Structures
1.
Amino acid sequence: MTTTEAPRATSPVARRKPKRKWTYYILPVYTWAVLLFLCLPIFVMILFGFNDTKGRYNITFQGFTLKWYKELFAIDGLTNALINSLTIAVIATVVSVAVGGALGMALGRYRFRGKGPLSLVVFAQIATPELVLGTSLLSLFLSLNIPRGYTTILLAHIMFCIPFVAVTVQARVAGLDGSLKEAAMDLGATPVVAFRKITLPMIMPGLLAGALLSFALSIDDFVTTSFNAGQTVTFPLWVYGASRLGIPAQVNVMGTLIFLFGLILAGYSILAGRRKKD
Amino acid sequence: MTSATSDEVKVGSTRRRMGRLTAYWLALPGGLWLAIFFVIPMIYLLSLSLMTGNFIDGFTQTFHVSTYWHTISLYHDQFIRSIIYALIVTALTITLAYPMAYWIAMRGGKHKSTYLLIILLPFFVSFVIRTLQWQFILADNGFVLGTLKDLHLVGSDFHLLATPVAVICGLTYNYLPFMVLPLYVSIERLDPRLMEAANDLYASKLQALLRIVFPLTIPGIFAGVIMTFVPVASDFVNAQLLGGAKTTMIGNVIYTLYLTNNDYAAASALSFTLMGALLIGIFIYARALGTKDVMEAAAL
């Protein structure tokens, strides 16, 4: 990458940093510009959570206030929607980690009849557009006259989370040494003990990544949910419905808090991963 | 296990049989869940699309294929528009993402994971809220257009919302990370010695890029294109929140037919057509690219 020759006379230690041509800076500047583009809506969201608006419209910045943080739960419909979203996300995460994790183990470690079609289904589900996932489930519920609501949202969310957990766990299991478990069992460990002491700690990173992904997918889901929600309202559905009338600042505040929560979780998992490597 | 005694063989084989049973027990709940809530619904989607009737009198199975021709002739504009938008957005995201993924993978150094975290940051904000922020940023008197209008750089009646530009901008924004990540993974995997070798053999940087880096990252491009094209073609949130009457995409039509008009047969016929069109598209694309194993490339 050096464009100018470093002077020969100086010793290698004291050698000046080579000057760089301006073209060297095109890519970094460009990258930061795109990163800024990606983060722009986040800045706007956080900023307007502090906006001292008069009335319902949150359009121009009128001054700094914390009142929306104090009145966070002032809108009953919005609060209920958020509670629905959070409980659905928690249940969907727990179930899909258990079910999807087992599926990932089976696909990653064992050979069995039907493995091919099963992995095809997992892949097809990930590749299917969400719109089709939503409408096909709706067709099932309509055809069988199943009323749509909280339960159907939950069923749908677990369905679209399972493949993602399965794929992350499968990738993790495939890179593992199976002989460790064999050794444990040769040394007299029961399958349960071998699982708890050997397999579980080894697939833990995969399970955690799958759990984070499931929670994020579930709490954020709009498309599949909108087709299968019936009268139940989740956070994204409420925001979408309110968008025609103008979004109250509480939405920005809740978005900011969810954002910070995700950021802390992600930061923590990166740090934990780094510590383990050392 | 090369010199196994008969005893070891016996232990091995029973364990293998047990292992196979374990595999079935492990795969069963997940497999069933996907069968009931993903595979079977597809069949119901197809079945519903072949019914005739209306919301009040109910639908009966008549195996009428005419719904398909009817809906496609009614909504082919929105169909074509969705495909065109998806093509433009995919092209835009590749152009935006490739240099960035390249720089992060090649020169990111120890900050690679930080850059990747920044790319993932938008996912911590709800999809609907993100899109609404763009509605707000691009608004007629928002801070972008408002400032431009104050400076008289654009006319006072200039607007972005409800135009294709706004919808494409929103779609590009929302699906850019899906393009960056697979590109990054495939560029990061490249052996840097290949570039050194190209340099030693007097290839210019551009030649090295076009003849070494680009061909070797085709699996990443393939994965990225599928991960953006498919969801963009079926998106309806961006067209709803940022677009107008002339930017309606096929997703909006399906949404309205299902949830407002309760015309389930037509809606499911359109969904099924969309799904089929996308599958055929992926297949042709995979063939054209010469990727032997589609699943491997997409799964990276």
2.
Amino acid sequence: MSAPTTVDPAPAAARPSVRRTAKEPRHTTPARFDTALGWSDRPGLGMALRILLCLLALAVFAAPFLTIISGAFDENARGSVLSFYPHHATLTNMRVAGDRGIWDYFTNSLVIAGGGLLLQLTVSVLAAYALARHRFRGQALVMTLFMLTMMLPEEVIAIPLSLVLGDVPVVGIDLKGTAFGVILPVGAWGFSVMLLAEFMREIPTEIEEAARIDGVGEFRMLWQIVLPLCKPALGVAGVLGFIMIWDQYLLPLIAAKDPTDYTVTVALSVLRNDPEIGSGVVLAGSVIALVPSLVVYLLLQRSLVSGIAAGATKG
Amino acid sequence: MTATLTPAGVPKSPVPKSEAPKSRRRGGYRRAALPWLFLAPGLLLALVFKFVPMGKGLWLSLFEVRPFLGDKWVGLDNYTRVLTDHRFLDAINNTLILGIGQAAGAILVGFVLALLLEGQTRSLKFLRTAVFLPVVTATAVVGEMWRLLYYPTSDGFLNSVLGVVGLGPVPFLDNPDTALWSVMAMGVWIGAPYNMVIILAGLAGVDRTLYEAAAMDGVSLWQRLRHVTLPAIRPALAIVVTLAVIRSLRVFTEVYVLTGGGPAGSTEVWMTRAYTLGFTRNDIGGASAASALLLAVTLLLTVTVYRLRTRGEARR
């Protein structure tokens, strides 16, 4: 919830006082002291039980994904015949979903996710740099404000936000029906600001000092010196930001003027409510909506998990 | 002047003031404004899209909002109206049942998963990757998935699994008696792996020598869990509880996608009710009041838990 303190590749970043030192040779302690339940690594009854339970967990948490993927490619997929492999493999579902404009929705999603993430990262890097590398009046207040954006449940401001999107204060532009209606609101995300600021504080300042004496300007300093050192944290902020934007539901719903503005996740309900098409097509749409988050997750999984753990373990 | 430049936590630059280039002196104002220049985009976006809507929401909750006639001041009428509306009270009730059940279930299952999947071998890493999938998948996709898993006839996916162990077809989302529990189960399914990751990070921080010492003292597995593991991962658990409770109160997407609040309002929750009020019935004032109440409860809970936590940590 509160400020993520370390971006450590090992989720073991919990509390230094009780952390097992990395130097300690692992094999001196028997494996049964390595886990809370003392699982043994030798074949036996305990091992068999663990494998059984693991298979159960795998079935509960991963098997549903197999069933929807198989359903998406099954010719007569109905809710009632979900299975782990398509009985009559076909691409018809995908084609029908395409006819219903799924790729347009998908493009909306990509534009929003790409633009939103770019804006979010830019905004966060700039703000984090100011918070981590400068001292100024009102710093604590700014920190609190960013924390608030993190804690403020998005759903709670949905109704007034939809009014604001229809008529942005001062400038009076109607953002509804444009990608900016979603991109701008996701731009300021306290979590990513805090994460990057914490990371920047850990970077030694010597290089910057030297550069500053050489007369390097602030923007060049950030771009050429600080940013390259922040790559690990940028990875974490990027993957979490993407997942967060892709998961948005209420925001694209209220920012849309008509259904053609929907993102692919919101559009699934359009497919579902279309009486002429079956579950197979809805599943095809779901798979299309699933693939980008899956790709991002599998590529940057380490960053994601360490980000969640780091963001959470330190109160 | 140089002081504003000095990066936090670092001794002042060794460069004596007199040697500083002249341009730095001239730019005194610019230097002071610099951090604000960097902060401007973030603060501006937060202001326009977070704080203005929040303020506007609180403001509108005191009015009867009439699009073409101008808003009419009604004081706290919206609040009393919302709080005496039995459909809204039912929704709060459902939110509490769903929230508590979902949070407790996700924590319990997350803890069990963490205990089961703790370890460094490759197969365990693979398992953790697979189990974590529900968290990264967009909620709307998960919802569509579960709608089909919950197919109410006896040959539906979950019903056919239940059929193997001899349980009759369950109507799941189609019946007011089972719908809320079905939504809850999906919530647990999404939340548990997330909690697992946080608890695993906590478990990794437990001192291994304590386990050895416990073994030497001949304590049982249960005692070891209770007196060694649990105290060590208490901070991680505290975070998990806070996050889970807050997440549960504001639940919207899960319900909206799975049931839309039905059947017969049996899964209507705080936010779906506010959404219906605001967007379907055009009662912006009432919806704003409902949202303001949720905001107040969330803030109260966050502050309370934060207080409890800092006090608990100070005690130790």
